[in-house]
Amino acid sequence: MEDSNNFLENIGDIDGEQDIARSAYADMLHDIERNEKYEKAIAKVISQMKNKGISVNVLDIGTGTGLLSMMAAKHGADSIVACEAFTPVAECAVKVIEDNGYSASIKVIPKRSTDLILGNDLPKKANLVVAELYDTELIGEGAILSYNHARKELLEEDFLSVPSRARIYAQLVECPLARSWNRPFFIEVTKNESIMPPPEAEICSGAPAVHDIQMSQLLSESFTAITDPAEVFCFDWLSPCTPSTGHNVTNLKTIAPGSVNAVFFWWTTDMDPEGEIILSCAPVWAHPDAKKGAIALAGSLDASCVLSSE
Fold this sequence. Notes:
By secondary structure, the chain is an alpha/beta fold. The chain has nine helices and 14 strands.
């Protein structure tokens, strides 16, 4: 996760240890599926490069606690530079890497990747980039900026990446439960007293709202699928990515009658260039592993629900 290098100074009075404790670092570290697929992809790509006689020079963008860098070191990377802009976490990464015996293999730089200086922080251009820059909506942590800058300034022309590409999917639904999340309701205070929203509030369309949820935990009877899931965006990290203008038109075919009041959306990422190792936060009914019977419904990857303004 990349953040401001002077995070504490910018925020003001803050307990840094508490801020880290309440962050998502622990959730990611305990996400078994995520970690296993990252390691499988890193091991595969390094092995492929080694078999071709290519020295593997890794750049780990937003290393966090250093987990991906240690995976790369474990599987034989020749050099590893890991950057982390949030200074307290960078210091944590140094200690974790030392405790695991990888200090000689991994150089931790407490900077944003966009501030790295080639020839100083990074001895030479890397040919493998590993990163965990995704958030629930995929690109909210500056993934496009980070990849584009690294491609231009820090990576060899024929570099490889783990993950390699990502896709965003959307599905239109009618979901009274989701609709209720931004609608006022009658509240009974006592038998003789209650709070009633004004009529204007009942008919107000409001504004679209995003809710991060474990979508697989929604009961099937709580919504009606108006369309099948459809790919609406694709980001190939091996090619230059142009920031979206905010609009992408996708034609969807309805599969059931109803009133669309919510959009379910999620991302799926190809961890390796061949797309053989897939990490997905799709709900159970659209998960790529569904046919394999290998889905952990209690996983920590979130999907999102966007409430439409009706």
